């Protein structure tokens, strides 16, 4: 919503600036036309030494310029532009509060884990020298074990970027049994791209020999539809781009393959595909506006939110940042926590522990479920673990 407000304000400024520029150019053209006309009239005077004729032309020019009124024409559009332009920085300042330290909370971090996350991130993005320096200065030698693996991944991806599949195929063949165990068809996708490359850049016979060696034998009848499609491509050797199978030439197949290869490689390392550091920073950027608003409101009420164990407002980060189940009590609207865990009632409904305690008013008294007629006691409720 706030970004939309900024965009609308920017669009207004851009529109007014465009109108102002157009109006300015129109006025300049009018003035230029009158100046050119006056200059032509002066040059056409038969007696150049006659000051009266020149004076009359200049007086006529002055009258025409006064009639045009450049200042009056430009004043309105320029004033509207300046008004919108002066408002825009205020909107930016209001939305992008530069003092983000207000949202800072004192949290005890394990330096070892933080160093490990940062070094791993540098390895992921290929900044191996930076990661090595951090490891040496922080004294975290065990992290360097990831270096060789990520170096191999980068070498594979660099080769794929230039359509060289040999390093990727070597890695897949080395881990073939493990990939089959998880139902991966990554090798087939690699072989398919390799087959299409051979068909495009070599002969039909070379493509057929490749298919017999790596496709028909390797899958023993599996993925038959895919293999039959590739065999159909043999009829279109040299003109695959004009065939019913032209979509196999799309660059998106290479991009998708590179991403899937990276995902499965990271999975084999026991690492997530997305860098934990990148995810944490992105989530922080998403939640920062809400946290800044909360900090400002709490400061205005002279309340300290730093000591709160649970935020009093929800921070919506989107589904891409949800990695585990979250329970919100339907009665109190509070999110479950270790101190206030979700509890299963005998009737099957779930409430947070504090809501149950308020309903029962005693650990021995029974209470009615707020969502059905059945009654229960605190002892009958079981804690749920998400």
UniProtKB/TrEMBL annotation:
Keywords: Cytoplasm, Metal-binding, Zinc, Zinc-finger. A zinc finger (RING-Gid-type) spans 329-372. It is found in: Cytoplasm. SUPFAM superfamilies: RING/U-box. Transmembrane segments: none annotated. GO terms for cellular component: cytoplasm; GID complex; nucleus. Gene3D superfamilies: Zinc/RING finger domain, C3HC4 (zinc finger). The keyword 4Fe-4S does not apply. Residues 329-372 form the RING-type domain. It comes from Camellia sinensis var. sinensis (China tea). This is RING-Gid-type domain-containing protein. It comes from the Eukaryota. InterPro entries: CRA_dom, CTLH/CRA, CTLH_C, Fyv10_fam, LisH, Rmd5_dRing, ZF_RING_GID, Znf-RING_euk. GO terms for molecular function: ubiquitin protein ligase activity; zinc ion binding. Residues 329-372 form the RING-Gid-type domain.
